[in-house]
Structure formats: C-alpha cells, structure tokens
Design brief:
mainly alpha; 4 helices; 0% strand
Amino acid sequence: MRRREDLSRPRKGLSIGLFYDPDAFGRFSEVIARALGTARYLVFQTVVVVVWISVNVVLSGLRFDPYPFILLTLALSLQASYAAPLILLAQNRQDERERAETERDREINNRTQADTEYLARELASVRVALADVVTADDLRSAVDQVTGALDAIRARIDTLDPGPPADGEVSPSARPEPTP
C-alpha cells in the first residue's frame, strides 16, 4: 500500500472524465423544481394524459399505446424518477441558503447584542460620572438656601441694631451709663 504525503485532505475518487459544474446543475434543478411545482405544469400534464388516453381509446387508427397504457405509465414513471431527485437537490440548495442566512442573522444579532451591551455600559458610566455634577436645580436650591440665610441674618441684625440715630437723638451706645 502506497502512503500519501498529504493526509489533511481526503483522497480524490476515480475520475471518469465527466466534469460538471455543481452550481449550474443546482440552478437547473431549481428551475425544474419551480416549474414542476406550479398549477400550470399540473394542468399541462393533465391535458397531455387526457389527450394520450383519448387518442388511444377513441381513435383506433392512431392507437399507439393500447389499453393498459404501458407506454404512458413508463413515461410518467420516468418523469417521476427524474423529478424527485431534482426536487430534492433544489430543496437541499434551499436548505443551504437558509442555513447560511440563519448564520448571518445570528452573527448580526450577536453584533447587535454586543453593541447594545457596550452602549448600556457607556450610558451607565456616564450616569455615574454625572451623579456628582451640579445641575441647574441644585444651583437654584443652593442660591435659595443662601438667600434665605441672608434674609434671616438681616432680620436678626435689624432686631439687634435699630439703626442710626435720628437727628438730635443719642445712640444707646453713646449715652452715659447711670452711676449708682
């Protein structure tokens, strides 16, 4: 037994010399499968079978397939034997396309989810960073508190110091203290 040098690839089968393009054959099978799956084809096949049987039953001079209609049965069997594998090949190609599309959708969904998670983390970090930032409402509240405190101080000062003396009046601090 002879050893192969490259064991990473399977052996090539026997080639007879017939080469075909699998994609071209797959496209051909899809065209056939689409044609066989239409109402037009079913009507056409029904008309052919009715004409075939009518010619062989009614017109005795043109009879080419007598009553058990063996030739018709053979033709329909041959058509079915080719139609079934072509339809299966078209379905397999459709499954491959759907599988590839599903994989692309899954990749897009994963990227979208990763982007969404990234944006959520960024938004959370922005919220944390903005938690200590002073807002306009905070400033208004602080200004209102300071204004209230200043008003309270003014009111207290006004109660302690009645103000400057009027003309001719002596201020209480300038009055002499009574002696005992």
